[in-house]
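Checklist before submission:
- one chain only
- standard amino acids only
- sequence pasted in full

Submission:
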Amino acid sequence: MLITVEGLRPDFLSCYGKGSGGKTPNIDKLAAEASLFEQVVTPSASTLPSIATLLTGRTPFQHGVWDDTYRNVLPDSETSLAETLQQKGYRTAAFLGTSRMAVGRGFDQGFDIFKDGYTPAPSGAWKLVLSRSQTVVGQASTWLVGIQDRAFFLWIHLTEPVLPGKGPITQPKADLRTEYQGRVSTLDGDLGKLLDQLRSRADYSNLIIVLAADHGMGLDEHGERRSGSFLYEPILRVPLIVRVPGAKAGKRVGELAGLVDVFPSLAGVLKLPLPAGLKGRDLFTARGPAAPAYHATALAGREQFGWAAKEAIAQGSWRLILSPRPELYDLGTDPLQAHDQASSHTEEVSRLKGLRDSLAGGAAIPPAHYLVGSVLDPGLGQKLKEKGFAPVTKEAALRRSPPDPGKFGDSLFLLEQMQFFTEALGNQAMRSFAQDLLKIDPESLFTLMGLASLDVESKNEEARKKASDMLMTAQKLYPLEPEVYHQLAHSALGQKRFADAQWLLKVSLALNPRHPAEIRYDLACARALGGDRIGALSDLKESVKEGFRDVEHIKNDPDLEAIRSDAAFVRFLKDEFPSAGTL
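Returned file contents:
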């Protein structure tokens, strides 16, 4: 059984000794039956890369999952632990408390049952959905009853520690920590019920149980109140508890380890063949290559806000953080990482940088999504030039120097909190904080795009102009960001500039957008409004093929009025949505 918990810090578990939290008796009881690893680091400050590493034993340099954004998919070519066990006759199931690993992102490989509580929107647009641990544990409990005594692999992913709090976004630090501890206590209680159920099974004596976190959680250390932008210990260090039948119970391991070691360790216990090229090692038998150091990345700040990426190298008590300005800490003398020693230990910085290169194995971290784009059709490029846009080229995009997130200090938390809330609630959550967000970072991709989207089609001319100005600022800073052109097209549609909307949407589609089906649908509407009925139907068909399945919206959208009576349109709807009824 694999239990992963989003944002769970070891210093809030009482089995890890004197820390920041209260009692966690159920996790403590599991630890008393298991090996507890005291110093474990994650490969990423984001969920998807860490889970991909747990399931495959491979680093992000190998499996290619780098952050939680839309372009990160676990490839079919990767072999997960679930696939390996499924092939050996195990029943496999996953119950997840988040939609981040929704079907289609590759994490369902090898699972007979994969439940994340997420129903995709008909438009094809993704949003964050989180479930309480009680719900996830209940689903897993029901499944366990059904499989009776058959061999199984069960994975649950719990998100209780990262759920939005009841207090205001700007709540004091003390309240933040108290609320976090309360959520950890709730998690412990819910998990205890499932662990007790497992103990009542006849096969419990043979059951392997792993409890780990994907990453830690910032609780105002260094200004961070979530995770994704920094790699200090509250984010980098995670709990790892492994119960292996026959192994010494209550063992504590102080040697540095990583989540990358979990797969080879389980493979050793289960006597599974090890895939070639794994970087981790067997924590129980030292089988496999020793890992002299561990590498981690924090790319969420880069992808969401346009900030500089962070990397970390951990070896022994040393932590090297690579960013525009390297930072070096010795946890042995500075556990709170308050004293940067990079300038006084330049040789140590160079040595750890060399280890980083060996861990990468010649691979590179991919560029930010707003630095990647296809070469535009010359006609579109000329149109952009005529309208006064910045060149849509990589060279133009690289002119901007991304800031170090550390420069935002105590203001950082508001941006990270707002980003989390908008994933679940939409951009409307930003409106009350608009001026604060713009003041903190007027060049933030998240702020410019999010706030502009609220008023880009407003009937208030002043509000619409402010939105358009923000989009033009974003276009100059991030000329390869496809959503810039999508939103500018919405502005053009609102002003009945249908021809402009069409070429702007074509630019967006050429730059590999997050939701191509939605943009293709908008292009169909722009063509219909502009009188191109044949082109409108063609793009509508393509949008449906790409995942836009909101048939009620299609049937009633006034922007498609021009083609609604066409026989070809009626026939298409009847063929594609036979149960949708008549127009």
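Reviewer check: The chain has two domains: 2-292, 369-576.
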